[in-house]
Amino acid sequence: MNRYLIPCIFCLIFLSATTAFAQDIKSDVEVVEKDSVVVKKHSPLKATLMSTALPGLGQVYNGKWWKVPIIYGAFGGLIYSSVFNDAKCRTYRNAYLVRIDDDPATTDEFEGRYSDANLRELVDFYQRNRDLSLIFTGVIYALNIIDATVDAHLKDFDVSDDLTLKVRPTMQQIGPGVMPTPVLALTLRLK
Question: How many helices (H) and strands (E) does the chain have?
Fold first, then answer.
């Protein structure tokens, strides 16, 4: 018997299923009864709104306190970088404006160290770094919200060892008057 025959038949049976059926699980239920104890579900919307209002508050709501210093460290570093680069940009821009004002009585502090072109390059460099710092601050803010939302969605996810997966072949009728098709049925149950 050909050694490829069984894997080919298995693939044909697996790929011949054109539809899939699953259970419909309601995720907007606020209260769940588990072992005759009423348990309030964790709210992803609440975590999202809290993180939007105050970065890190959604992580505290989710019980991930250790993420708060990381978030505020990132914000602090980016804001410091933005203020530093803005100050340097203003310093070099003012020196450049003094140079091009056509008044021989005014001189800047960088006379003899930097040319006009060097000052213009320094202005552009620090302005670009300031703008990037502000953009990354917005990215950190968005990631903070996304992290709180995803973590809240996964808070009630069951990761216990009491899961059973049954795989069994079956026949499924795709439509009326169509010959039944062999498919694999996957059943996932909590013990």
Answer: 5, 4
Residue 96's CB is within 10 A of a number of other CB atoms, namely 20
Predicted confidence (pLDDT) per residue in 129-156, tens digit: 999 999 999 999 999 999 999 999 998 8
Query: Has this prediction a pTM greater than 0.70?
Result: no
Answer whether 123's CB lies under 8 Å from 92's CB: yes
**Amino acid residing at 96:** Y
